[in-house]
Amino acid sequence: MKKEVRLYNVLFPIWLFWLLPTVLWLIILPANFMIDSLILILALKKQKISDCLQIWKQSILKIWIIGFFSDLIGAGLICGFMLLIDSLAPSWDTLYFPGTTLISIPGVILAGLLIYWLNKRFSFIKCGWSKIRIHNTSLILAVFSAPYAMLIPLYG
Questions:
Q1: Three-class HEC string of 41-76
Q2: Burial, 146: exposed, middle or buried (Cβ in 10 Å; 0-12, 13-18, 19+)?
Q3: CA-to-CA distance for 93 and 155, rounded, in angstroms?
Q4: For residues 63 and 19, which has the higher predicted lDDT (pLDDT)?
Q5: Interior/surface letters 113-131, b for 16+ CB within 10 angstroms, e for the rest
Q6: Which pLDDT does position 5 carry in this prediction?
Q7: Where is 156: in which H helix or E strand?
Q8: How far apart (Å, rounded) are the C-alpha atoms in residues 107 and 105?
Q9: Which is higher by pLDDT, 25 or 45?
């Protein structure tokens, strides 16, 4: 008789890589850099800023570090919520939908807010921009680079 094979975890949640030290960091870090670069370039083009390459050179490293730091802080908040809920209500398995998604929402929001606030404060200082342009660019970065993958549940 054949043994039935079930694939419960076909889509590995990306946010779990932040919790496990693996070789996949070598993929995640450059991919994150490329995504941040693409979002920055598109944001600059959308605002009709002419010196995109110069601004990219001045700010991309800060944007990338801020984004990754913010994602880690958001993941830490999610882990804290999971541990708290597991201790208060052990019967509620937080690895399944909708538990993971509901617990992840505050972490994604926190990461997005940190991306916005830290980029607004540190990334565009040398650009000589107006406050509204800094606000707009930081907001675009926050909205489009927030770690939405954290909303993916571990199990369906």
A1: HHHHHHCCCCCHHHHHHHHHHHHHHHHHHHHHHHHH
A2: buried
A3: 10
A4: 63
A5: ebbbebbbeebbeebebee
A6: 44
A7: none
A8: 5
A9: 45
**Which residue bears the tokens 């680079």?**
145
Q: pLDDT tens digits, residue range 93-130?
A: 766 677 778 888 999 999 999 999 999 999 998 888 89
Cα–Cα distances in Å, from 79 out to 18, 20, 22, 72, 155?
11, 13, 19, 10, 16
Question: How far is Cα 68 from Cα 94, in angstroms, rounded to an integer?
Answer: 24
State both tokens at 129: 């921009």
Contacts of 86 (CB under 8 A, 6+ apart): 92, 94
Among 115, 106, 104, 110, residue whose Cα is nearest residue 149: 104
- Closest to 78 in 3D by CA, of 139, 8, 149: 149
